Amino acid sequence: MQxxxxxxxxxxxxxxxxxxDLWEIVALxxxxxxxATGLACLLxxxxxxxxxxxxxxxxxxxxxxxxxxxxxxxxxxxxxVYLHLSRSGPLGFLGLLYTPTAMIIAQTILIAPIVAALSRxxxxxxHGEYAEQFRSLCLTRxxxxxxxxxxxxxxxxxxxxxxxxxxVAEVGAVxxxxxxxxxxxRVMTTAIALExxxxxxxxxxxxxxxxxxxxxxxxxxxxxxxxxxxxSAYA
Length: 235
Hints:
By secondary structure, the chain is mostly helical. The protein has one domain: MetI-like fold. The chain contains ten helices and no strands. Helix 1 crosses helix 10, helix 2 crosses helix 6 and helix 5 runs antiparallel to helix 7. The longest helix has 37 residues. The N and C termini lie far apart (54 Å). Keywords: Membrane, Transmembrane, Transmembrane helix, Transport. This is ABC transporter permease.
């Protein structure tokens, strides 16, 4: 117990003393995850809107596929990205393997289906409420999608935060394509795994504390946005 208490004490010291190595890892984690979340939203929101308002043959199967892809195994995503970016892969000439860019690609592929599927559900429910009004205004599909995206902006921000929470906690895919290289591709989750295996519990616990605070912050943000959206709806 004394060793654990001492490790926690040292971990808190690392967090509040502004340890350079610790915050370098945190900064890279945030940069990778925020970039991946932004790209996933750019891809997922329009795709979710199209599926929400369009009616075409095979739509039901596409929705089932979208929902299934929400549960993509991270290590499988990491393996597929690795195979494409390795020297013998089709994109090997880009030299992206074991770089933050490769980690961003893996995280984007992992969370884009989550963003698309959740936004599709949100926008489809909203479209059902306003379908008659849209038809009376003779809006095109593009105009309808733009109107839905704007009206559901608070709910979609919740979806984006959910995607970010999934990305920042990811370890399997990023360690495969990033390699966990010190001062280059080491993020919080991979560093926690490495430092724990090395027995460096203070650094692992410090990173765990930061990651836990981020997770709580994301959940608080989601709740705040839900409350804000509910108030806007009743305003």
